[in-house]
Amino acid sequence: MSELTEARGTVAPLLAVFTDFDGTLVEIAETPDAVEVPSELADGLDQAARDFDNAFAVITGREVADIDRFLSPLHLPVAGAHGAQRRRADGTMLEVDAEISAAADDIAAAVAPLLERHPELILEPKDGAVALHYRQAPELEQECLLIMREAVAEHLDFVLVPGKMVIEARPAGYDKGSALRAFMQEEPFLGRTPIFIGDDRTDEDAFRVAQEMGGIGIKLGPGETVARMRIADVASVHALLRGLAEIARRHELPAAPEDENDEAPLLRDATAH
Ligand SMILES: O=P(O)(O)OC[C@H]1O[C@H](O[C@H]2O[C@H](CO)[C@@H](O)[C@H](O)[C@H]2O)[C@H](O)[C@@H](O)[C@@H]1O
């Protein structure tokens, strides 16, 4: 079924593992700040990163600083604001271009008046991107879309991307696929086989690029996707990362269980129904 299964008993390829954050490493919460990070998550990711020779990064719509706060004290390589910010594996921070930063501030300022009328909306200004959340008022989706469209019309170098109960503006030249590609051109990712795990529409660019580079996209949950594999939920992502890390640690895939039916597979073919 999966390439992992097919490859059993052979030497595992060296993997570069990339994951999304919200909805993939942690469950979706009612508000961006209400995310609950399991106490053992940072330690688990730290161990996985070491097992992957540090070829492990988070690619997210959030700011890099947000990921650091949630995963403290861990400082992973992270692409934030959909790739507009990026911290390399060597710790170098590639800051957001000043013009992009200023444009994102403008967009946030143009949208802010809507929140005076609808305080249940959440405006999340970021360095290099803007998110307008309507999870507490789903009936306002169209109004949110309209005001974001108007705000972005003044900044043609920005595009709108829909997410989970959110409309985001991000700079046109950046997406999660370009972020993955940029990591893959650098050590320690260079020459490895990329795996990207994500749950949302903005993750599709990264699935596509990972697969173009000979790797695998793994989509969490239902919905159309270009990813070749699917995984059920956040707990399964944690289990998969533990499993891949163990494989990397041993440099060899584990022997197949005596009866494969004893274990439900974590991954399934995304095209199978
Ligand atoms: O790329 P990701 O790591 O998946 O980040 C995407 C956006 O995630 C956050 O918003 C989403 O998660 C919130 C917390 O669970 C939820 O309340 C919201 O409805 C979701 O859209 C984050 O706030 C955004 O900045 C990210 O771009």
UniProtKB/TrEMBL annotation:
Classification via Gene3D superfamilies: HAD superfamily/HAD-like, Trehalose-6-phosphate phosphatase related protein, domain 2
GO biological process: trehalose biosynthetic process
MF terms in GO: metal ion binding; trehalose-phosphatase activity
Catalyzed reaction equations: alpha,alpha-trehalose 6-phosphate + H2O = alpha,alpha-trehalose + phosphate
EC number assigned by the record: 3.1.3.12
Top-level taxon of the source organism: Bacteria
Family, as annotated: Belongs to the trehalose phosphatase family.
The protein's name: Trehalose 6-phosphate phosphatase
Record organism: Devosia sediminis
Recorded name of the encoding gene: otsB
